[in-house]
Amino acid sequence: MELRDYIRILHKNWILILALLVLGLAGGAGYAALQAPKYVASTQLYVSVRTEGAATGDLVQGTTFARQMVTSYVDVINTALVLDPVIDELGLDTTAGKLAPQVSASAPLNTVLIDISVTDGDPEQAAVIANAVAGSFTDVVQNTLEQPASEDGASPVLVTVTEPAVAPTAAASPNVRMLIALGGLLGLAFGIGIAMLRTVLDTRIHTLHDLEEITDRPMLGGIAFDPEAQKRPLIVHADPRSPRAESFRSLRTNLQFLDVEGGGRVFVVSSAGPGEGKSTTTANLAIALAETGARVALVDGDLRLPRIADYMGLEGGVGLTDVLIGRVDVADALQKWGKNELFVLTSGRVPPNPSELLGSAAMNQVLQPLGEYFDYVLIDAPPLLLVTDAAVLGKKTRGVILVAASGKTKKQELAGAVRTLATAGVDLLGTIVTMLPTKGPDSYGYGSYTYGSTHTTEQAEPELSQAQAKPKRRTTAKA
Asked: pLDDT digits over 202-238, tens only?
């Protein structure tokens, strides 16, 4: 992925990332609030060797000896030999093994100093224990570990308290700021990780880049998502100045310049699966083409689940199936729609053998005159992955235009549809992306802007009455 892909992922999942960041900060603060405060009191000891009246060489040797012994003395401080007297002196209700984790000792490198620290929940208690440990250690070193040479003599090692422990004024732990920052960092990392995982596991079509991974055929247009598409499917007619209607006009322009190597402009519009907007796209594209003055035939080739008659508000009792079985002529079955040269051939009654009818010689006899008379013939076909009807029709026409819904069509489904067309030897002329979001990282600006005022049909052009939208069954078109 490129840098812009990572930016798009962060932009798309910023709410999730922000929520987990806040949750991490709150978790760190909550964990810090649950921790009991701990106080640390420290004392420092100085270890030396008695060298009264000694020469300089003896002083050097004594200092070297003290440095060597300090390391061993540090390990002695946490033993029962030192801690048991402290427990007895202070009357603590504990043992040396339990007290040892509270006591820590260290010796700075190349020094004869020993630092003793005691951690406790009570600052006063911490200071008392630290001073008691220093006193007990001094007694153990001078009277047990380094015993005097004689009964009235002094120990050769002298331990001096250079800095007694005092009660600390501030708790050493928990470190609230550090815990909050750590929680926020973990939450941020977790949020970004989930965002990346969602992107990797999401196999749906979202962007033009997703299409380019599957096919090199051009994208003819992008149709913006409209939550009211079910209420007003014919947006080009219902609201001709809306941004979504303009996207169909852009699709119309791209289709007009599509190189089909001459011949009739007979196109099949299909999709990989159902519910991707192929029927509404075909109907609106037909209306947009008719607005230019072109003669357009809209054929409902979905003989299994026809939608065109409902969308166009036409009677669908007589249609393509009746023409294919020879009951009526194609000229009699065509119904004029609207004020322009748009004629609709509905599907008719649902037959038991749709694929056989669409692949028959009778279908050739229907498409040939339609292609000769009309400038554009758009055939709405069933989904490619469910039935073979679209591939059968594609062999009889210039090719197939695939519709894919942003955020719904899966990449493997679209790739399967492309393979189906390639296996059948059908040309894939291009793709149309529907349901594109108008905002966000996947929008690409489709439907975001319009030029001039956006008026409804009532403001711009009165809607056709039912009588105008439903023309006579017999027309003057001679297909």
From this structure: 888 887 778 888 998 988 988 888 877 778 889 888 8
Separation of first and last alpha carbons in the chain = 52
Determine the 3-state secondary structure of 103 from DSSP: strand
152 with 264, same domain: the answer is no
**Same domain, residue pair 249 and 356:** yes
Judged on CB neighbours under 10 Å (0-12, 13-18, 19+), 385 is: middle
Q: Which residues pair with 173 in a beta bridge?
A: 38
Give the DSSP per-residue string, 380-403: E---TTT-SHHHHHHHTSSEEEEE
Q: Which residues pair with 103 in a beta bridge?
A: 118
Tell me how crowded residue 341 is: count the other CB atoms within 10 A of its CB. Answer: 18
Q: What range does the domain containing 248 cover?
A: 205-469
Do 117 and 124 touch, CB atoms closer than 8 A? no
The encoded tokens of residue 130 equal: 């630290």
11 and 109 in one domain?
A: no
Query: 269: part of which helix (H) or strand (E)?
Result: strand 266-271
DSSP string, 341-352: TEEEE---SPPS
Of 242, 294, 224, 254, nearest in space to 401 by CA: 254
Weakest-pLDDT range from 8-17, 101-110, 182-191, 449-458: 449-458
Element housing 415 (H / E) = helix 411-424
CATH of the domain at 438: 3.40.50.300
Q: Judging by DSSP bridges, how do beta strands 376-380 and 266-271 pair with one another?
A: parallel
Are residues 157 and 93 part of one domain? Answer: yes
State CA 373 to chain mean position distance.
50
Q: Could you tell me the two tokens for 212?
A: 């380019």
Domain count, the chain: 3
Pairing of strands 219-224, 266-271: unpaired
Please name which of 440, 65, 432 lies closest in space to residue 220, comparing C-alpha atoms: 432
**CB within 8 Å of 205: residues ≥ 6 apart:** 211, 404, 405, 406, 407, 408, 409, 410, 411, 414, 433
pTM of the model: 0.66
Cβ-based burial of 251 (10 A; exposed 0-12, middle 13-18, buried ≥19) = buried
- Considering only CA atoms, which of 116, 80, 121, 85 is closest in space to residue 100? 80
Q: Give the strand pairing for 103-106 and 39-49.
A: unpaired
